[in-house]
Design a protein that fits this description.
binds fe (ii) ion; dioxygenase; 9 strands; 2 domains; Intradiol_dOase_C; alpha+beta
Length: 203
Amino acid sequence: MRKNRCLKTLIATLVPLFCLAGQLVFAEELLLKTPADYEGPFYPVTRQEDIDNDLVHVKGQVGVARGDILNLSGIVVNTRGEAQENVIIEIWQTDPQGRYKHPGDSTPDARDPNFQYWGAAITGPDGTYYFKTIVPGAYEPRPAHIHFKVMKAGKVILTSQIYFKESFRESKRFSLTPQTELQTAELKKAEKGEFQAYFRIVI
Ligand SMILES: [Fe+2]
């Protein structure tokens, strides 16, 4: 009889504890999604032959793009932090003079024939991606940025922009906001005078 009462007391104590543990698991903090940002007017309109993840070499050209080389890597995860495989990331950006390769960009002078301006990468099983590109040039009045689109199963699920902490430090007109902070990477000096940046995309 006494044994039964002890057992009941034990169950009465443990059940709420299990429930609480379950709630804690569900209350696990989810990652904030990478905010959408406007596409801008210079999304490529002309299909180019070379749209790989190496933007500093263009098929058929022997030279290397002008500017500071940027090794841009990162990962695509969902809000639970799980790596997302087979996600396509497209980037398009300016050259060091802040010029897009787009008929609507009237910034003068010829474009760099050795810079690809637009590229794409696909995430591997670990969700990671990589681009070899250059540090984009800023154009007034915006801080330097790289535009990107994320595509999954043939659909565009996010259009946004990557900013750089350094651009905000240098800018008198722009400062980091809670939104842009989620879109901002840090430019770091790497070997051979190149730069590197890491950017996580949460979808
Ligand atoms: Fe732009």
